[in-house]
Amino acid sequence: YPSYLAPEVIAQGIVKPNDHTQCDKPLPSGPKSDLWSLGIILFELCMGRKLFQSLEIAERLKFIIMLGCVDDIVTVLAEEHGCLDIIKDLSENITALLKKCLTFQPSKRQVFKELLHDSLFSEVSSVYPLFQKPAGLFSSSPRCANLTLPEDIGQLCKDEDNDYLAERSIEEVYYLWCLAGGDLEKELVNKEIIRSKPPVCTLPNFLLEDGESFGQGRDRSSLLDDTTVTLSLCQLRNRLKDVGGEAFYPLLEDEQSTLPHSSSSNELSAAASLPLIIRERDTEYQLNRIVLFDRLLKAYPYKKNQIWKEARVDIPPLLRGITWAALLGVEGAIQAKYDAIDKDTPIPTDRQIEVDIPRCHQYDELLSSPEGHAKFRRVLKAWVVSHPDLVYWQGLDSLCAPFLYLNFNNEALAYACMSAFIPKYLYNFFLKDNSHVIQEYLTVFSQMIAFHDPELSNHLNEIGFIPDLYAIPWFLTMFTHVFPLHKIFHLWDTLLLGNSSFPFCIGVAILQQLRDRLLANGFNECILLFSDLPEIDIERCVRESINLFRWTPKSATYRQYAQPPRQASESNGTRSSMSCFSADYQEAPQSDLSRDSIKLDDLKAEVSPRISAEDLIDLCELTGPSHSKTPIKKTKSSKPKLLVVDIRNSEDFNRGHISGSINVPFSSAFTAEGDLVQCPATATLQSFKGRVVVIVGNAVKNTAAFAAHLVKNKYPRVCILDGGINKIKPTGLLTVPSPQI
């Protein structure tokens, strides 16, 4: 408002930058300008009249600018408005305060903090204790630092008829109210706050050629309406009437059960087995999950393991944003870090970001709103600026979308989650030259298809439909480019529990859902099929990808570029309590039995994946020197998990082989047509079809060729031992058959 503008703001003039994101220098308006405005308001209160009432706006502004030429601004203002007597009657400390506020030069004007120490406020400052910002959820300072408990704990819970629902946060209650059948729009229509208008009545009476319209009153929805509408909780309370008080205070230390024992706990257990989409709409079930997760998240990182455990069941949609942040291990002063990043200075990537945002998940009201676009722009720019070694690739906007949607009012957390997600699942994908990373990734994916579904792999290779043609947008955006947000939430709920190789299993699960159509079609039809991906059942996709993940040996998906190099301090097993489901193969300490990195061309030449000697020993349940002095075979209650096929000649095999392995010499294993030659050993191999088959030999070329032949014969789960038999020799795990007498 003109009369209250500080001189430096007026001196700036009216700035109209061509693009609101590109302002050459920051505007001078700020806390010091507010101090001038406060001085004018205090002056008016002391004088009992408004200033500059008789002057035109231009004159007012000129007058304020001219105050720079005078020594005592307060006296000049008083003279101008004929109230010098009132000024003289004011106490000295009030006059001093007015002079401090109305200092012409902003550099000499005090800041609010200094002003609070003024003698005028000494009487009241003791009454108002300093505001202390509570520690944020992921901050490094302890959240319980200022916690005080009453002398008598009994005081906390003396009311028998407690209204437990009223103790929950407004967000939780509103979310549950909606689940219980509440409809906000309907309530607002009933109170006539939302009024529908026939479209014909919204047409303008007069329209200029530049698009300016006249003859229509302003739409009421764009005007401020401070009507308060109270929403009735009767329906929700009725829905939750059977929920006991203990549901609101679950016992977290009780290992036996995570569900509260109430009269309705049987129904709750039954609800846990229902499909996820139904569980997410069940008011009582969601109340229990929200209360439980709220308690666990407030104890993060102390309860990190239990958050992982509960997230495997499901994640309540209301708390999905912060639960994901906890699963990604976000911590520290996230707001301060985000604020410190320059998100305003123009950078070369701005143009591409501006083009991509209006095409990213725009069916969603939040992300398509102007505010959504502005937030998108800031978070993406923050990521680009803070990762100078990486570049903006198309698809980064899709990757940002789930985090922004879930943390729409907390950009810093959205940025922190995205910054934690990319190094874990997409390490080095956003390098300027990322071809070697992507090529390695796609080659391992091809091997995974051959490992899990050899028939489909054979068909796709025959028609030349390679992953490069369809899978790059899948992995570069972690499927956010191909699925709508509601499907991504359910997919990522599981993805975040898995390690960096889990996306391969999701990719194979998608292909298996389209399996029949892919097998029946040629190259052109497959291209068309993927250009507009058919409806995918995401629940089935998640189930199948978990199953595929469990069948995949950890080292089979080894990639050179899978993870950032680890710091020495991190190798103390911080993740030891995490399950193997989420730990990465690269995180395990490396030994002589681990996978060796190989050239990309060699990797591309192999149809089946390699597995490490460690994995083989583990899967064969052999106990080597690392576990005990003498290698012994564990007692087995069930059929072995895998079959080891030794393809060396029989002399070498008899000199020493892996216990339980069969000998199928490579030279005589296959007919000219590529079929297996019938013999007792190949009969055993056929009986193991469907289980993991590990090919062991001396020459890499032979083992790879043998594995490729088995894949051609539709043998699933075939893999090669990395380093061949020579890797196993030093372990002392080879057995020599007793001589035939």
UniProtKB/TrEMBL annotation:
SMART domains: RHOD, TBC
Pfam families per the UniProt record, alphabetical: Pkinase, RabGAP-TBC, Rhodanese
Every Protein kinase domain range: 1-121
Domain Rhodanese: 638-737
Gene3D superfamilies, per the entry: putative rabgap domain of human tbc1 domain family member 14 like domains, Rhodanese-like domain, Transferase(Phosphotransferase) domain 1, Ypt/Rab-GAP domain of gyp1p, domain 3
Origin species: Nestor notabilis (Kea)
Full protein name: TBC domain-containing protein kinase-like
UniProt KW Transferase keyword: yes
Keyword presence, Transferase: yes
A GO term, aspect molecular function: GTPase activator activity
Domain Rab-GAP TBC: from-to ranges: 314-499
Keywords: GTPase activation, Kinase, Transferase
